[in-house]
Amino acid sequence: LEKNKWFLENPTKNLLKELDVKLEKVSSELFDMEEDLKRLEHEKSRKMDNFRRLRGSLDERRIVLPTNINILKDEIRKRDLKVKGPIIEYIKYDDTLSYAIESVLGEKLLYSFVASDWDTLDLLKRLKEKYNVYCNIYLAKSESIKPYNKFEAEGVIGYLAELIKTNDIEIKKVIYSKIKNCLVVKDYRNGKQLYNRYSFKGKCVTLKG
């Protein structure tokens, strides 16, 4: 009797019909929940795939280069030219410096190449014009790098050229010659203070560029 209590509470003629309606409603709700679950699982899978791809790119420090830069690289490879570049593939830096580096160096310098001699430089310039490549072409420099004078002040992170790491001396020489004595500071206030309080004569860039 206890098991059939639900029947005693509603012993009407329409009981079965009402049960069918409720069952249909519950079935519909269950179906909707299953569809939502499938959609969420699909969304989760898609986001995990994106995450794994992004993480792989970061782990490998893979750089996606413009098409024309890749074409120029292929030409350099085919001709077996003594050229280094693009510069962006030779350098490493802390992620917090990204905006400062992009602001000071710019795409054209980051995508630039360094030729070993004048003949290679001339050929590379012709190839650059032929394929309309957005970059600079530099000649490897013979002079040595002069170290910067040590500079310490509130909010100063360091000289940008020293914060950009590379194992290639020719790439390093180009960076030093183009950036010169540019200091990286945390924010605008620190930069303004450099000029007002310390009479700094060089350039400075904030972490926000």
What keywords describe this structure?
209 residues, three-stranded mixed sheet, single chain
How are the SSEs ordered, and which strands pair?
Elements: H1 5-9, H2 15-60, H3 67-78, E1 83-84, H4 98-110, E2 113-115, H5 118-130, E3 137-139, E4 156-159, H6 160-163, H7 169-179, E5 182-185, H8 188-198, E6 203-206
Parallel strand pairs: 2-3, 5-6
Antiparallel strand pairs: 1-2, 4-5
Structure write-up:
The longest helix has 46 residues, at 15-60. The protein has helices at residues 5-9, 15-60, 67-78, 98-110, 118-130, 160-163, 169-179, 188-198, and strands at residues 83-84, 113-115, 137-139, 156-159, 182-185, 203-206. The protein has 209 residues and is mostly helical. The protein starts with a helix and ends with a strand. The strands form 2 sheets. A 3-stranded mixed beta sheet has the order 1-2-3, sandwiched between helices. Helices cover 55% and strands 10% of the residues.
Overall geometry comes to elongated
Structural class: mainly alpha
Q: Tell me about the biggest sheet?
A: 3 strands, mixed
Q: What's the alpha carbon Rg, rounded to whole Å? A: 32 Å
Strand order of the largest sheet: 1-2-3
Quick one: how many beta strands? 6
| Average pLDDT taken over every residue | 84
The end-to-end span amounts to: 79 Å
Poorly predicted regions: none
Total helical elements: 8
The share of residues in helices is 55-70%
Strand fraction band? 5-15%
Order of H and E elements: HHHEHEHEEHHEHE
